[in-house]
Write a structure and sequence with these properties.
By secondary structure, the protein is mainly α. The protein contains nine helices and two strands. α5 packs across α7, α7 packs across α8 and α7 packs antiparallel against α9.
């Protein structure tokens, strides 16, 4: 009789411990998984809270249009599909398809890592456009706005054509009224580039005989 009386309270205590133990685990689990309302509070600035310059830059990156960024990316896409690590069958390298001779002329001496150095490739393009703008400065003043062989001449068209065929061949095309045209190994002509890359804003490029490799 005494054993029964003792056993019953012991069983009761064990049951109570088990119940309270499960409840405490559930509470701990809930406290860990339940998200805090403070973590969900964030702020997205509207256009009134962003400077107009920041908006202009961000929009030009998303949709460069006829900006200088749009110009160089359009040239790159035509030259290489926009890929930095390409060498064509004729030895022209990188995103903008430079020859080794042109790169050395601009002051690039070590070309071993040129295909992997994306920053160097962008500097090369900027420098070459700046140089061509200086070489063709008189032609830009004289011919921009005119129509030659059915194509309106623009500064960006001249600079793109110079990237394709060299500034000397662009001069020949303009001075011959379109009768002397040059093409690359793939058949792209000065006239084609003049037309394809017309009306981009290349005013940010300063003409320089010895452009800085920024």
């Amino acid at each position: 009789m005494i054993k029964k009386i003792i056993v019953f309270p012991v069983i009761l205590v064990i049951i109570l411990l088990m119940i309270t133990g499960f409840n405490s685990k559930e509470k701990v689990t809930e406290s860990v998984t339940e998200p805090s309302s403070e973590e969900l509070v964030f702020h997205v600035p509207n256009e009134d809270e962003i400077s107009q310059e920041d908006l202009r830059i961000s929009r030009s990156l998303i949709n460069p249009g006829k900006s200088y960024l749009g110009f160089k990316e359009a040239v790159a896409f035509k030259e290489s599909g926009g890929k930095y690590d390409i060498v064509n069958p004729y030895g022209y390298m990188g995103k903008y398809q430079f020859s080794r001779g042109t790169l050395r002329m601009m002051g690039f001496k070590n070309l071993d890592n040129f295909l992997q150095d994306t920053e160097q490739q962008e500097k090369a393009f900027h420098a070459y456009v700046s140089y061509n703008k200086w070489v063709l400065r008189n032609e830009i003043k004289r011919y921009v706005g005119q129509e030659i062989d059915g194509v309106e001449v623009t500064e960006s068209g001249i600079l793109a054509a110079a990237h394709l065929a060299g500034p000397g061949n662009v001069k020949k095309f303009l001075k011959s009224d379109g009768n002397s045209d040059s093409s690359d190994a793939n058949g792209a002509t000065v006239k084609y580039y003049l037309d394809m890359f017309s009306d981009y804003d290349t005013s940010v490029i300063k003409a320089s005989k010895k452009p800085q490799l920024l």
